[in-house]
Amino acid sequence: MLFDSHAHLNDARFNIDRRYVLNALEKNGVGAVICAGYDIESSEFALKIANENKNVYAVCGLHPDAADDFCEADIDKIRLMLNDKKCVGLGEIGLDYYYETPSREKQLILFEKQLQLAKDTNSKIVIHDRDAHEDCIKLVKKYGVTAGVFHCFSGSSEMAKEVVKLGFYVSFSGVLTFKNARKAVEAAQVVPLDRILIETDCPYLAPVPFRGRRNEPRFVAKVAEKIAEIKGISESEAEKITFENTCELYGLEGIKNA
Ligand code: NI
Questions:
Q1: What residues sit around ligand 1, an ion, with C-beta below 5 angstroms?
Q2: Which end of the chain is more exposed for a tag (fewer CB within 10 A), N or C?
Q3: How confident is the model at residue 257 (pLDDT cuts 50, 70, 90)?
Q4: pLDDT of 230-240, one tens digit each?
């Protein structure tokens, strides 16, 4: 069984067939999914979906895109969500320097507030890092938060090594299957097997040969295939190991042999 460790089933692009996609998970070989929030509304929705579906879990948090209009009360709301029994972590949080807005200053304020929250609540964090590798590493070090994952990893193999050394897991998405994915492949080569997670980040980033389509959890099989190829192991081994790694990170021992 596959574990899609990062999916946005709360996204509006699933409004048309969310029930169907959820019901078909097991049939499609997907044993479990983490549904990731990115603002208050999507985090609440992720929790709702998780509570209504046995093998779906949620992470709740404020994505850097939310940095312009968050308020202190939002941090308190996320703090409360972390108490939910189906909430397994704080995310996705981080920094995105690809676009000019929200400003870096505002993103940093929001990220630091949530790193403090992670520290206070002993939460696992899910980091969104785009073109902000240095600052992400600097800040997780500053707050001493070392339990979590760099999702949709886009850094170099050097950075991957550093992230692993700090205690983090590294999650690879469909990007790994793209023709120009040399950097991601190199990173996957150096991350030890017991620290690798796989994800779709659906509805975004559909892997080859589904590129351009709406992504969905079952396509995570293509990422597992690629990991198997890179690591020289069988696809079923890649599935099993990444499933167990995700359980290990989020303390989901109960579903390990699902
Ligand atoms: Ni995401």
A1: 201
A2: C
A3: very low
A4: 999 999 999 99
